[in-house]
Amino acid sequence: MGYSLGFDLGTTFTAAAVMRGERAEMVSLGNHAVTIPSVVFLRDDGELLVGDAAERRSVQEPARAARAFKRRFGDAAPIILDRTPFSADRLMATVLTQVLAEVVKRQGGAPDAVAVTHPANWGAYKLDLLRQAVTAAGVGNATLVPEPVAAAVQYASTERVEVGDVVAVYDLGGGTFDAAVLRKTATGFETIGRPEGIERLGGIDFDEAVMAHVRATLGDALEQADTSDPATREALAALRVECVTAKELLSSDSDATISVNLPSLRTQVRLTRAEFEDVVRPMVRETVQAMQRAVQAAGVEATAVKAVLLAGGSSRIPLVGELVARELGRPVVADSHPKHTVAMGAARVA
Questions:
Q1: Among 66, 68, 235, 298, which lies 20 to 30 A Cα-Cα from 81?
Q2: C-alpha neighbours within 13 Å on the C-beta side of residue 286
């Protein structure tokens, strides 16, 4: 039996899902996780590594690595990897090419159809660049799908949504935010009004907020660290992972402990959920205001919105659901794996 393939090329992670018959499922791309980091690394011989391998190599040679390049999509200024210039769309094509090859290997053949997602507020210029990147990856016939549409399609596969129903999608990912209002049609979903987006706001900004808390707690200790020392670089990379883990733990716990294991300093920093929420609240409020603007642009009353669907890994932060529900006054629903929602929906669209 053939299959359809959906790609979610995120700012921080890349995911893929396949659909056979009526069943959609994620494809395990990483060594230890379903998703892979959206990181590209330039080796000495000119080969480009993607995902886990790129992440590992980037610790010791950060100048050869590109990350969060989705935020630079459409930017004329090149991304420099060890003196070699790359455009964001070329790096995107590299990720697509290698992930497609991995999926084909794991599935035992090429997909019958492919869908690639993108932020809802991307205009004609960025969409044309994405089409070129998709063509360069060997899937020029792929369907381009707005991320909120993919999320709504996945939601409708598990919840009853009637033709004419209106849903709002709040998609807070690793690096970008999307807000859109959609109406169910006989053939799928149509966007109504104008989607709203914030291209430089997402989980990596929350990670940086946690890192800033650690810096403030430790005083000058991090600034004085010798980054020319390989052991220090590894320790700082491990500290950033600790900050990300702490952020994720605070979605289900009231406090988290961050281990600091620099060669010159070994200690722990405590962060409570209340402290974290105080720092990120202004950013979350900005996303909620964008969601409100999207509803207004759609020309519908908030009461006409059946539900607000939370998508993207960062939407798991409890403060997000609280503020969205309070400010919009509508039921809030979230997938058990919000990181996977867009990829699964894309596979269904394909």
A1: 235
A2: 15
State the sign of the Cα–Cα–Cα–Cα dihedral 17, 20, 25, 28.
Answer: negative
Burial string for 153-190 (b: 16+ CB within 10 Å, else e) reads bbbbeeeebeeebbbbbbbbbbbbbbbbbbbbeeeebe
In 222-329, alpha helices (H): 230-249, 273-298, 318-328
In this structure, what DSSP letter does residue 170 have? E
pTM of the model: 0.90
Quickly count: other Cβ atoms within 10 Å of residue 326's Cβ: 10
Which DSSP symbol is given to 189?
E
d(CA 112, CA 5): 8
Angle at 270 between CA 267 and CA 275, to 5 degrees: 150
Per residue of the chain (350 residues), what is the pLDDT tens digit? 799 999 999 999 999 999 998 899 999 998 888 999 999 999 999 999 999 999 999 999 999 999 999 999 999 999 999 999 999 999 999 999 999 999 999 999 999 999 999 998 899 999 999 999 999 999 989 999 999 999 999 999 988 999 999 999 999 999 889 999 999 999 999 999 999 989 889 999 999 999 999 999 998 888 888 888 999 999 999 999 999 999 999 999 999 999 999 998 999 999 999 999 999 999 999 999 999 999 999 999 989 999 999 999 899 999 999 999 999 999 999 887 888 999 999 999 99
Spatial neighbors of 33 by CB under 8 A, at least 6 apart, are: none
207 membership: H or E segment, kind and range? helix 203-218
Task: Look at residues 102, 199, 195, 92 and name the one whose alpha carbon lies nearest to residue 148.
Answer: 195
- E strand residue ranges, 39-110: 39-42, 48-50, 65-67, 79-81, 84-86
| DSSP type of residue 2 | -
* Per-residue burial over 82-105, b = 16 or more CB atoms within 10 Å of its CB, e = otherwise: eeeebbbbbbbbbbbbbbbebbee
